[in-house]
Amino acid sequence: MKRFVLDTHTHTTASGHAYGTVLEMAKAASEAGLSLLAVTDHAPKMPGGPDPMYFCNFKVIPRTLYGVEILMGAELNVIDYRGTVDLEEGLLKRMAVCIASLHTVCLVPGSRRENTRALLGAMENPHVHVIGHPDDGHYPLDYEELIRGAKAAGVLIEVNNSSLVPGGSRTCSRENLGEILRLCRKLDQQVVVNTDSHFPASVGRFDEALKLLEENHFPEELVVNSDPEKFKKYLNRSGL
Predict the structure, then answer these.
(1) Is residue 90 in some structural domain?
(2) Is residue 1 in some structural domain?
(3) Which of 63, 109, 171, 198 is deepest in the core (most CB within 10 A)?
(4) Structural domain of residue 98, as residue ranges?
């Protein structure tokens, strides 16, 4: 597997339950040898998360810090089974990258059909680029339907390293990610591997996810992390 040079799911103190600033996260990314970092703080429906005003002023943040390209975006909360997310259109347009995720504090887990429909609905939003941690066993999903939908919409599926770290809040992640990788390989769907870092020390640390990719003999060409331009195609849907 080629060296990973981007981490596109990270959180700062603005998320309310993370513990690094933008500068600290960028410095950690530089020290980890990354060339691109996306800061994707939780959108407002997350308890303790930022006010919508937080997402209005990203223009003041330099686009390069410590030699690392910085993308400012959001991890959107899917808040109903139709796939509604919790930032309005005017703010979504300002985001360089948007991840859409299910969180139990924002949407009570439903049936397999309801949960799948929620993420498929989120993918219909043209501002959504990545489906975050679909491995969480609290939300049963039809993974084949989800991945077919992602491929049709030009949306990346995330392999979340944090889901694989012992002691996390998600359930059945290793088994579910094994199934996700199998189907992504079968359907030729690309993935992005992310740390979901909530503290600088974990930025750029993909150890558990890399092991899982190797165990599942996942093809390198279906992982976008070695090439920022490959990832950026999903931001503007060009060349897909």
Answers:
(1) yes
(2) no
(3) 198
(4) 6-236
